[in-house]
Amino acid sequence: MSQTNKRSVKVFSPATVANVACGFDVIGLALEGTGDEMELHLSDKPGVRITSIEGADLPLEASQNVAGVALMALLQEYGKPEIGIEMSIKKNIHPGSGIGSSAASAAGAVAGGNMLLDNYFSPDALIRFAMEGERLACGTPHADNVAPAILGGFTLVRSYQPLDVIKLHTPQDLWVTVIHPQIEVKTSDARGILKQQVLLKDAIRQWGNVGALVAGLYTEDYGLISRALEDVIVEPIRSILIPAFHDLKIRCKEAGALGGGISGSGPSVFMLSKGEDNARAVAAMMENIYAPLGVDYKIYVSRIGNSGVKAINI
Amino acid sequence: MSQTNKRSVKVFSPATVANVACGFDVIGLALEGTGDEMELHLSDKPGVRITSIEGADLPLEASQNVAGVALMALLQEYGKPEIGIEMSIKKNIHPGSGIGSSAASAAGAVAGGNMLLDNYFSPDALIRFAMEGERLACGTPHADNVAPAILGGFTLVRSYQPLDVIKLHTPQDLWVTVIHPQIEVKTSDARGILKQQVLLKDAIRQWGNVGALVAGLYTEDYGLISRALEDVIVEPIRSILIPAFHDLKIRCKEAGALGGGISGSGPSVFMLSKGEDNARAVAAMMENIYAPLGVDYKIYVSRIGNSGVKAINI
């Protein structure tokens, strides 16, 4: 058996929230406690092979799988055609949940693959490869979820051409509560209802809030974070797709949340809180609101994780 | 002579740049070396009196003068009708220059007045009073210039209702070079040519840049500040009112500027630089470009001042 056959890694790749309120299309964050687990092994057989997928019905064929496609992009740029990687995936994030299911798989694949290649690539390159998974998943190679999945914490995508992603400071005691109502909202539908033009005065209010949110993160000013968590552009339109959205927002804030909004393109809704107790009180409030609705749902409570994909024990 | 008659203060009130690139209508900054000087004295004669104005032809009648109106708003809220303040103003900032001439006078008046009242009011209240000066000057009580004039450094106006102004972190070695072409651009004209609607994709790019600029300020990442100094919404429209604007931008960056844009509603143009040497090289480049144009101009070079209005020796 060759030396390379022995090299293996197991990684945890976090769930993520994209479109953090005012930060539509630019600000995302990573969860600490929820994510996919993946094992990757260097192999003498060239190319990418997915040996098993647990927890979701997704294609094993690498070229049809977001994790496979992302890892193929990495290997192609690595430029040694003799290298092969085998991968097994344990999905803990339900596809379509709005907390970056495809991004977690794509990010875990490329970050894990990079560990097997002695961290040959920079985080920026990994984001670029993982975006190829997003291209397969939704038609657009966006970085909203793969950036926080790879870098951890809060991230800002300043620009795509060239790709310019900034890892922001993440306050230690910031938690997120996410409710995933198990109804289907297609990303394409959620995008289709947006208007291509917006009022300048609304746009100004939005970028004032984005600046304030970033300032609040750096200064760990939870009050400022709370005031800045406002989306006057997208939320008023998309929230109609989500059952009880306004009730959720108002009552979760009464229960102690700093604020929140739609996670990604929905249907999940996230709320940020200072501290675990508040985050759990928000979860209880979400249950109170959703239990009588007759809609299945799942609730996640997690600190904002400051590390992205990380190696865990096999 | 009563005790109060003796109490006097002299203040320096800085010039300011509003609409810092992507931060249109929300981000401003204060200069350290350029500003108005004002002397204020408590008086037994109730009300506000302006005893002299040097350097500009402006009304002495308090109710017609931005500094007077701002100070009257402060005294009214103070609620002791027997109090009077006399004020003399030395204008070093040319009205209409686009670097906050009216704001400097209004800010200096209320901050100086507050010193005479043992700092009774918070900085937020002072901003609110100074905005009354702006209402007189241009019809709208905006905070774009009075906020940095009072707080110093970089400021962000997150919201007007309620007023929410944040002082951002200012990197130590950040300098600004401003050229004031002595042509008239009326604020009302500059505002009139803006479109009320903008493309969502442009707005997203703008708020990505705002977030990045704020992050760059907190992390003192001059490269990031440079990349974020982009305005895809207002500058493409307003820059047509300013002679040689695109030449200025390109060649000042070649000369070492991080980037820049239109100061306020123009006609001044500002460029940020790391360090005094770069800021002076940028000034020389501005001269090179403007000298052949046959337009009078004035150039200011200053560190970004971290203090706003401050007491100086009488």
UniProtKB/TrEMBL annotation, chains A, B:
Domain GHMP kinase C-terminal positions: 214-288
Record SUPFAM superfamilies: GHMP Kinase, C-terminal domain (SSF55060), Ribosomal protein S5 domain 2-like (SSF54211)
GO annotation, biological process: threonine biosynthetic process
Substrates-to-products reaction catalysed: L-homoserine + ATP = O-phospho-L-homoserine + ADP + H(+)
Top-rank EC class of the record's enzyme: transferase
Keyword annotations: Amino-acid biosynthesis, ATP-binding, Cytoplasm, Kinase, Nucleotide-binding, Threonine biosynthesis, Transferase
GHMP kinase N-terminal domain ranges (all copies): 70-153
Localization terms from the record: Cytoplasm
EC number: 2.7.1.39
Lineage: superkingdom: Bacteria
Annotated metabolic or biological route of this protein: Amino-acid biosynthesis; L-threonine biosynthesis; L-threonine from L-aspartate: step 4/5
GO cellular component: cytoplasm
One Gene Ontology molecular-function label: homoserine kinase activity
Nuclease found in the keyword field: no
Function as written in the Swiss-Prot or TrEMBL entry: Catalyzes the ATP-dependent phosphorylation of L-homoserine to L-homoserine phosphate.
Family recorded in the similarity comment: Belongs to the GHMP kinase family. Homoserine kinase subfamily.
Official protein name in the record: Homoserine kinase
Organism: Chitinophaga barathri
